[in-house]
Protein: Branched-chain amino acid ABC transporter permease
Organism: Nocardioides flavescens
Amino acid sequence: MDDIQNILGAMMRVAIDPQTAAVAIAVIGLNIHFGYTGLLNIGQSAFMLLGAYGFAISITQGVPMFFAILIGLALALVFALVLGVPTLKLRGDYLAIVTISAAEIIRYVGRSVGIGWLTDLTKGAQGIPGSQYRAPFTNLSFFGDGSTTLLPFNYTDVAGGSVVVRLIGWVVVIALIVLLVRIARGKVALTGAARTGAMVGAVVVAALLALFLVPVTQRNTGANGLWFTAVAWTVVGLSVLLLLGLTRSPWGRALRGVREDEDAMRSLGKNVFAIKMQALVIGGLFGALGGMMYVLPATVQPDSMGRTLTFFCYTALLLGGAATIWGPVLGSLIFYVGRAFVIAVSQTYLQDGSSPIGFMSNQQTQQFAFIVVGVALMLLVIFRPQGILGDKRELRFNV
């Protein structure tokens, strides 16, 4: 049981990790590109990297944090304009090739060492250490020093941490998750404010119960601390609300129209190019914001924000469901928590020296997680291409 509790603890730490929240923000932007507009953008990591570089370099040069955030967003805006003007008339695979190439250009420029002044800013392939730009954000913390258990009252305070208590608790958590998915997919007869309230209530209760079953202790302030976690997930919540407002507006309906039939939109007098450009810019700004949050507890290292990160974002989006409000957040959580589960199980039961049947090295357990995730994604695309919360009708793309 201790092994299982350790595995669950690893999964819970990943679930609340600020970088998981940062990827969820970037996936929300990708959802605007791919889910709502049908733009096959394979370069979301470029927006994340530009936002991170703009934020980090500005602070290292003495710019106040608020203006550093604006500079990071401005870089993403300029990149979206430069990228979009010549390429948004392309469709399907052609647009995908151009965007992934542009993202690779940004990554290679960031890691290059041939230009002295540029290397002084980006620090080349080594990247910019978080200690050089994290302080202004950390100084805003009002959580103080020390550590905090996110839910002080937990399973250890009930019946001495009985296994029965934990089993009942996990049954309730799973039931709440199933209920949440059914509500999100419209399987429960709730609409409007009642539907939203039920979803928020189910999320809060499930999260509190999960923390009750797997207590997590974090430092109040510092990299990956409680301050970083609280801010990151607050930004996720605000991003979801903003996405909800955008997609339910006439502009959101125009995005769907462009995705499904560009010619019909042109016949109605709509400027399809302008709508695509607006979607590319807004989704890119979400990506830049996610990139800033991603590097706050880490380092601005170009290779860590390359095409692999874009593929992670697409996996999370497809898993949760494209063209849905909650899909990006749910998909990001499931993807990273599932990956942490595979790694933790592999290290506990399959790693050489950890159990009698162990036959993998630590590096192989990490690689094994990628194999499992890849197979899972293949099965998902084959058997449920719309994702957990998605609708097959939303997969009609005019590409």
